Amino acid sequence: MGSDNWNWHSSLDYDQWVSLPVVGPQPSARYKHGAVVIDEKLYIFGGSRNGRYLSDVQELDLRHLSWSTFKLKTQSESDSIKDVKLLEALPPTSGHSMLKWGNKLLILGGHSKDSSDTVTVHYIDLEACVSGIMEATGNIPVARGGQSVTLVGSKLIMFGGEDKNRRLLNDVNVLDLETMIWNVAETKQTPPAPRFDHTAAVHVDRYLQIFGGCSHSTFFSDLHVLDLGTLEWSQPQIQGNLVSPRAGHAGSHIDEKWFIVGGGDNKSGALETLVMDMSTLALSVLTSVEGKHPLASEGLTVSSAIVDGEQFLVAFGGYNGNYNNELFVMKPKPKDSKHPKIFKSSAAAAAAASVTAAYALAKSKSFDITTVENSKSKVDLSVEIGVIKEEKKALESSIAWVKAEKSTVKAKLDEINETHADLSKELHSVQGQLAAEKSRCANLEAQISELHTRLSSMESIEQKVQSLRSQKSALEHNTAAQKQSSSSAWRWMAP
How does DSSP assign 201-240, residue by residue? Predict the structure, then answer.
């Protein structure tokens, strides 16, 4: 394939997954690895295959679709003695989180043979081609795998996971990357049930959204939102399509669209690619694949990438009965240019945040009034009025949609109630039949008992008859003998 002459990204249809051929030796198939796209290159690290943890770093040139192994320098290749501390070998790891920070890839959590009892922050320096450990202090969280980690400004937000002893977690821990200090977030309201292998995203740098995941016995399809400003949890109702519970799915967001791919419930893989509007929490099915498709896998990764100025989703790996190493890409349909983003100013952004809170949290929220007032003083009042009018339209549209949904749900509920009434009548009829059959069975059992008694009496009578027959036979035999004896005597006495 002449990859230099083939602009693969120009020939794709919108919102459809396509498997692309690649150049060079492919990475070994795996799942629960980490993946990040930087400057038209996809980097993957670690993962698991056949119960074995992996530690290799692979690099895919997305423009030319060529794989290569990203080689880290060894201590013997170090330029100076001070670099020796940096050249820590990356341990084989699975179920970790990998993010971009500056020119580094950060690797947190995951299961490995590392004996550490707390979360270690490994890094890969892409320019120096070295790896090491970023030392941290504070309330360092317990070691875990299957957690979610999201970047908000200079802070990493870690939620949930499963520790070495298979204890499920639902704590929130924050690492400030500028000070390398860990803190525990003391949240309010009801948190999500402890879980792992969920996915998470942050909307407008304020609302942490958690979707799906599993415990040891339950798979989830719920959505939870943590307001990072007030540290209050809520569980808003997802609008739109109902979806099956899943864990091990992957998520990536572009603007306000959160794309959720794959996952499963240990019995079957999730076939749908979902897209959620993070501002309205409306969830819909974007596209679906056939059963046993590599994208219907647990432990796959999905990353957002820009290639030659166009936005793509890139999926790799996963397990659905088979380990996968195919490369899939999707070109999401761009946002409708007829409806441009209206929240431009700082005041408008604050207003947008309040609307998002109304959608996402479904209850009253109060922001820092001082901040809002300061923002208002910096903008023209007409801009704010325009924003409020647009918000009113959005809310009216949302109310109309909710009313339509309410009507649909009511119709379904009436149908269910009618079905329930019919089933209740049928159940009562069946119960009456069962009672009649039970009575008939009792009568039959009484008759059988009586027959058994008669049968026992008949056996006794038969024995007596047999005894009388024996006596009669003996008597007849004796009578015959006597007649014969008498006849002989008379013959002897005859002249």
Answer: EEETTTEEEEE--B-SS-B---EEEEETTTTEEE-PPPEE
